[in-house]
Amino acid sequence: MKPMEILTKALFVSFCLMSFCSGVMIGVGGTAFLLACNLYETWGKLIGSILFSLGILAIVMFEMKLFTGLISDIPEMGAKNLWKLPVCFLGNILGVLFAATLVYFSPLANSVIPQAQALMSVKLEAEYWGANALCSSILCGFLITLSIGAVNYAPRKGLSTTVGVMFPIIVFAFCGFDHSVANTLYMFFLGFSGKAVVYLLICVLGNILGGVILPILSLFRIWSNKTEKVKEEN
Question: What CATH architecture does domain 3-227 belong to?
């Protein structure tokens, strides 16, 4: 067996494991969000949003693979690397379901499960639930990209990377925007149905659309700057 083949397989296994671990962190963060909402009525959502953002911070710090974070790489990913998206999403889902199963049989279940059921029931029973899911998940995808982008942007501007990563996450969690991976946790506690699966798929689409907005605009800006530079030289 060639060394390159061994390396490729090792990298693939590592990618899968990091995707799974990322899903676990989303599950933990989502559980903390639900628990805070249950315990602290007025301030619960804000406290829960901060706690949820710590899960994303851990993902960024340890370079785990999150589907909604990987979306920002689509414009520059190339066809050969598109396999990462479904593999990462599957790993995230398995990680979330693993965390959800542990929570289900833990002492937190009595507080967390009813909160998750109430949260998803409201969304699924809304009159325009499909449109709501799409718009909400687009906004979530946009904010996730801002959070991931802060890793590179914040240090160049002398800003805190931690704050840069956490703040957009706090905003999307506090606003209740739909994150396709986190929603899997809430749906697990509610119980999957055909409508719930469709809702989740709409959220996946919305997260993708929202996640590529900034990267595409950045590429367009780079192209525009190059075009202007060429014109000036001529």
Answer: Up-down Bundle (1.20)
